[in-house]
Amino acid sequence: MSDSLLPLRREMDERAALPVLLYFGTGILWLLAGTVLGVASSLKFNAPDWLGSVPALTFGRIRPAHLNAVMYGWASLAGAGCMVWLTSRLCQVPVQWRGCLIASAALWNAGLVYGVGSILLGYSAGVEWLEFPLAAVALIALAFLLYAASILRTFSLRKVDHVYVSLWYILASVVWFPLLYVVANLPIYSGVVHGVVNWWYAHNALAVWFTPVGLALAYYFIPKIIGRPLYSYYLSLLGFWTFALFYNWNGVHHLVGGPVPNWLQTISIIASVMMVIPVLAVAVNHHLTTLGNFRMLRTSLELRFIVFGAMSYTAVSFQGSMESLRSVQETLHFTHYTIGHAHLGVYGFLTMILFGAMYYITPRVARWDWPRPGWISAHFWLTAAGILIYVGATCWGGFLQGRALNNPAEPFTDVVELTRPYLLLRTISGVLIGAGHLIFAALFAQVLRRMGPRREEAVTP
Amino acid sequence: MMFIRLSVFFAGVLAALFLGWAALVGVPGVQIAAVPPQPDLRPYTFEQAHGRQVYIREGCMYCHSQQTRPQGFGADQPRRWGRPSVPGDYFYDQPHLLGTMRTGPDLLNIGARQSSRDWHLAHLYNPRTVTPQSLMPPFPWLFEERAAEPSETVVHGRFVANRDGLDLIEYLLSMNRTYPVR
């Protein structure tokens, strides 16, 4: 990279600043809200009568409020901000249609307030991952379309001939997600078909939006920060198309053993195992690009988060393929193991990568460096330790729970008793993670308020 | 250099999504839509349907599944949670409430397993009054404090169920798919 690109980068960052910081800032607010809801949900298992007379704070409402706040709030808003910045960088053209993005962030947040508020007040649509009432869905769908329009406009004006692999994932996600979101929310399904649509959607929301965001960022930042090219570019092409083909078919593994046709369960299990191919392609590329540069994890805090995320992606993907098998599902289905798996994916992989990417992007668009690097390190260790304890406790506890459930001699109350220590450990890990989030939010606020030493030129665009 | 023609890229991406939809939703949708309701399955009464809305409102499905697994797959059969459920058992369910967690037990046949209205009343007011080990939240807002009519059950000394509580119990008692599959 020659220095002649610096003025262009500065211009791109300046143009991206307002929408990106808007997505990031509101995303962080949803992260904090989602964390409080998550920790409170977990605490309810340790003390079921705590806040037990407040309808809006009963477990069955704050648990879906947690999921929606972190998925459609935190991960989506932070992800959209990262994608806007990354598309501009990879197309070498400033962000286009900024008005669309600002309107998108506003509508998105309005939809979230309406949707999460509806769940807490008792107006949930009652379908996991699709709890929002239709008005909130319409707001968020519109917000996503505005975001997609800006991404596609920026892409259409690109000044580069080469379309880097991260952009494939971004482009695919902006056409995939609105289709999926609208089709799954149509109020036309009932009975077992509704169950199938539900899990086709819930697994695909990861396939067509959340995972592409995480992979686009990992594919960009690992080679970028380490300063060497991707291990195998052709492999990334194979990885993308097999990802697109197989991931879509996974959803019904959430209903193994249930009242859905056997052939349907079987093809979803097969597709889940086939995911080994795109995951290996991504793993080889990410890990072999990192290999030999592990000392950079000491100096680059961004890279530390992103490599942790990339490693989690490999782990959670192999775990998922294994978990879909009938013999494994027989034990692990219906248990806290699934919750552990979900958090390894959405937190260990996606959220950690988002943290790393935001630590890289924020000082560039805000033109103000992070005031306290020590805090960033503390954020990393709190969240990394927290998520490892979380996944360990829920997966091991869930495994024991599943074995006990499958033993008819074990009374159900004993199964409940058995999970208690693991559920307590989960709350503790949630508190560690929450402490990390507070540090992150405080740092972000300090950058926005330009606190700390005046050294804006210290950030290379 | 361009990696592939853009039109081909977007066509491929859309085809991938469509194929997954066709396999997971389209074809099974046609197959299952042709399944009639089980002849012994009753549509929900007004009270039961309202109780089902309370079940949804309070998020019961995040801890209770409504699907029973076949013999040899898990312990639903030896635990006597009910014969394996079939698509015709869910004909009137909108939205579906199959659930994916068993933090609490499966409820597909709770009406057959626990048919006592009084047990459900006490349990909903505070589950630990009947099951000390329970992790289930209490639902005191399904009750009100007032003088009880002779026909009403009093829980915790001075509370009687309100409309929401009574209808939720109507719904739970209607949960009975123990009829033979035909």
Quick take:
By secondary structure, chain A is an all-alpha fold.
Explain this structure.
The complex is a heterodimer of chains A (461) and B (182). Chain A has 461 residues and is mainly α. The mean pLDDT of chain A is 96. Helices cover 77% and strands 0% of the residues of chain A. Chain A is built from 15 helices and no strands. Among the domains of chain A are: 1-162; 317-461, no CATH class. Chain A has helices at 6-46, 59-91, 98-121, 134-156, 165-185, 191-226, 233-246, 262-274, 276-290, 296-299, 301-323, 326-332, 336-366, 373-405, 412-448. Chain B is mostly helical and 182 residues long. Chain B has two domains: 1-34; 45-174, Cytochrome c-like domain (Cytochrome Bc1 Complex, Chain D, domain 2), CATH 1.10.760. Helices cover 36% and strands 3% of the residues of chain B. Chain B has five helices and two strands. Chain B has helices at residues 6-33, 46-57, 110-113, 117-125, 163-174, and strands at residues 143-145, 159-161. Chain B has a two-stranded antiparallel sheet with strand order 1-2. The radius of gyration of chain B is 22 Å and the shape is elongated. The model of chain B has no long low-confidence stretch (mean pLDDT 95). The chains are: A mainly alpha (461), B mainly alpha (182). At the A-B interface, α2, α5, α6, α7 and α8 of A face α1 of B.
Q: Helical proportion of chain B? A: 25-40%
Distance between the termini of chain A: 12 Å
What is the helix tally of chain B? 5
Largest sheet features of chain A: none
Topology pattern of chain A, helix = H, strand = E: HHHHHHHHHHHHHHH
The chain pair forming the largest interface, with residue counts per chain, is:
A-B, 80 and 70 residues
Strand content of chain B: under 5%
Shape of chain B: elongated
The percentage of residues in β strands of chain A lies in under 5%
Largest sheet of chain B: 2 strands, antiparallel
